[in-house]
User: Which sequence fits this backbone?
């Protein structure tokens, strides 16, 4: 059994570590590239969203490498995501790959479903081994996200532009190579220290921009054309609520216990959107209301034709809490120069707005 | 008398007789917006962001047509009518979205319909809706039961007499409507009722097919069992609330011996982009019934639709002639 799973940001690193510890034959699909996108676009139904196209591209590339068991997140009551695997399975079959798609029903079965699946995939490995492997995977995920958060803070204020990105790339590699908890801890300490020592502009008061919107396009830099890096280059500090590690922590461990990190957002969105509309629509509206005071602006990322985000986009202009929002629709037609022009114009507007408020 | 407005779009085609009976049972007057016109569509699209789907734009146009004509507008948030099967985000957020984009709209009666939360919550939702008109829970109960009855009669009428929703609604209100001729060759239409029966956005598709001498069976004319078997054959367990209209009827009609199947989808419709693809793949695999998918959007010109329809019908004719020759 050769297992594979589509990419989402750096998620493949923890997954690979987890699989190695369980002696699973895990195939990491080639990193998402232009070819992945072209394959995805070519075989997707018209009008599908970018997460479908990219994950389909990943699955095809994994199948090309011989993967026969493909894991695909799904679940009910979210958005089209719950239906992805049905269509993707048919596309793969029509292309002649005899792969089985296992849907990860994350929304219903939580942690235990996931552990049971691992047990099944690893040919009945002992529970102790599964749990230790799972913990190691989570540890890697946490390290990656902690470093990314530090990088987000350094990017706008560093004196030599690009230092943080270089360090980040090295850190990703080092995390991937770390093969026990000790080494992992060392990597985290090392890189956080190095990032702390990066020479920075002490007087800078960077603009603060929140990144909100759909889960996948927020976490997969390929799909949003590295919007965070570009904003960093323009001297803007980005704040993002959604991180894979945070999501795992809540949706696997804390939500079943009744702790919901999103209650705050939902409450804030209440006057404008009273109910869950699937995807991240409710949270998007909530973030706008909640952060209208403490951020300079918001960048709303959504895949083209994303159902929940369109509803959110329609509702956002009507909120009393006022903050500039730039919506960027991500799909294969999104071009870098076009996006950069819009980002620059947006940042100029925010600078002007801040200056006006100060006077 | 209190006037309740119901926009002639989206869920209207499925539930109008039910809603009408309910509100009239509570002593309210029901106002329906006039059929879609170009002006409805333009006014609707001027309010929402560009990539909102066509049916929602039409819906907003209908709400605008009802402004100042009624005291309330009824827009339910229909989450789920079957266990663990959910609806598209746009239906879930419809009342909130309408309130946001049409601030001048009269008060919106929004209730959450969600079977998964249990019977009690559903009944509570119905009572809270009825409370706007009557303090008497028994009266609300009576109206709700009558509405449920009306809904069943409406559904049965469509299945037994092969009527389209507009025809069935006309017949319920007493008008005579001609029944479909059953001796003609058939082209089945597959898609959501708000696309198939809105003559503006589909450029009078049904009328054109009838003119060309075809009868047009639609999803509403199938029984629940037929629809469910259709879904099971194609995708297994349904995922969307209205999966039966598309995948179910598509699965049924592709193997029912009709001369052709036309799948009607709206541009930008999330669920349709996946569901119609399922039907299309099935059609390609079966290779028995010609299938055409027709995407509707606000810019699609009538001439384009006609050309595609003519080409499709020509192809069916040619196929028939060829088959006749082989047999002879």
Assistant:
């Amino acid at each position: 059994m050769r297992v594979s799973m589509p990419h989402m940001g750096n998620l493949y690193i923890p997954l690979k570590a987890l699989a190695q510890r369980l002696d699973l034959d895990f195939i990491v699909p080639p990193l998402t590239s232009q070819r992945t996108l072209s394959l995805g676009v070519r075989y997707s139904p018209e009008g599908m969203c970018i997460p479908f196209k990219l994950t389909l591209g990943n699955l095809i590339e994994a199948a090309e490498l011989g993967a026969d068991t493909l894991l695909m997140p799904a679940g009910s009551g979210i958005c089209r995501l719950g239906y992805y695997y049905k269509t993707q399975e048919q596309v793969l079959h029509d292309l002649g790959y005899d792969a089985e798609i296992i849907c990860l029903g994350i929304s219903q079965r939580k942690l235990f479903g996931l552990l049971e699946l691992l047990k099944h995939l690893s040919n009945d490995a002992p529970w102790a081994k599964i749990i230790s492997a799972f913990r190691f995977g989570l540890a890697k995920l946490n390290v990656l996200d902690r470093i990314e958060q530090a990088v987000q803070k350094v990017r706008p204020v560093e004196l030599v532009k690009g230092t943080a990105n270089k360090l980040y790339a090295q850190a990703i590699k080092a995390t991937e190579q770390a093969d026990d908890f000790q080494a992992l801890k060392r990597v985290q300490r090392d890189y956080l220290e190095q990032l702390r020592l990066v020479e920075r502009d002490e007087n800078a008061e960077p603009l603060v921009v929140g990144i909100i919107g759909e889960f996948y396009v927020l976490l997969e830099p390929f799909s949003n054309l590295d919007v965070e890096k570009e904003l960093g280059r323009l001297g803007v500090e980005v704040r993002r609520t959604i991180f894979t590690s945070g999501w795992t922590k809540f949706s696997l461990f804390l939500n079943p216990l009744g702790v919901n990190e999103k209650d705050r957002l939902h409450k804030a969105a209440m006057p404008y959107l009273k109910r869950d509309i699937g995807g991240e629509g409710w949270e998007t509206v909530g973030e706008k209301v909640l952060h209208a005071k403490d951020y300079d602006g918001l960048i709303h990322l959504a895949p083209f034709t994303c159902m929940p985000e369109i509803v959110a986009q329609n509702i956002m202009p009507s909120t009393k809490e006022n903050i500039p929002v730039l919506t960027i629709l991500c799909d294969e037609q999104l071009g870098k120069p076009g996006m950069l022009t819009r980002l620059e114009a947006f940042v100029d507007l925010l600078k002007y707005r801040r200056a006006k408020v100060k006077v | 008398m209190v006037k309740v407005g119901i926009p002639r779009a989206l869920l209207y085609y499925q539930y109008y007789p039910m809603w009408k009976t309910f509100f009239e049972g509570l002593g309210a007057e029901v106002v329906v917006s006039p059929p879609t016109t170009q002006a409805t569509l333009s006014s609707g699209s001027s309010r929402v962001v560009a990539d909102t789907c066509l049916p929602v734009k039409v819906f907003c146009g209908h709400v605008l047509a009802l402004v100042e004509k009624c005291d309330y507008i009824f827009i339910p948030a229909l989450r789920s009518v079957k266990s663990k099967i959910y609806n598209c985000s746009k239906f879930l957020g419809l009342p909130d979205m309408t309130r946001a984009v049409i601030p001048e709209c009269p008060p919106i009666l929004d209730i959450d319909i969600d079977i998964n939360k249990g019977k009690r919550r559903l009944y509570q939702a119905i009572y809270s809706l009825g409370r706007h008109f009557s303090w008497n829970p028994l009266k609300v109960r009576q109206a709700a039961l009558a509405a449920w009855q009306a809904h069943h009669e409406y559904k049965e009428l469509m299945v037994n007499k092969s009527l389209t929703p507009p025809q069935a609604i006309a017949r319920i209100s007493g008008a005579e409507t001609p029944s479909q001729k059953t001796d003609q060759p058939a082209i089945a239409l597959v898609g959501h009722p708000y696309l198939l029966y809105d003559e503006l956005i589909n450029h009078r598709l049904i009328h054109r097919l009838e003119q060309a001498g075809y009868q047009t069976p639609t999803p509403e004319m199938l029984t629940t069992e037929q629809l469910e078997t259709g879904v099971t054959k194609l995708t297994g367990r349904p995922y969307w609330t209205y999966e039966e209209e598309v995948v179910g009827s598509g699965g049924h009609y592709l193997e029912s011996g009709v001369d052709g199947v036309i799948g009607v989808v709206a541009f930008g419709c999330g669920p349709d982009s996946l569901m119609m693809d399922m039907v299309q793949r099935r059609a390609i695999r079966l290779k028995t019934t010609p299938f055409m998918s027709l995407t509707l959007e606000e810019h699609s010109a009538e001439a384009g639709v006609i050309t595609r329809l003519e080409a499709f019908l020509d192809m069916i004719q040619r196929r028939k002639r060829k088959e006749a020759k082989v047999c002879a």
Summary: The first helix of chain B runs from residue 12 to 25. DSSP finds 14 helices and nine strands in chain B. Chain B has two domains: 3-161, 183-327.
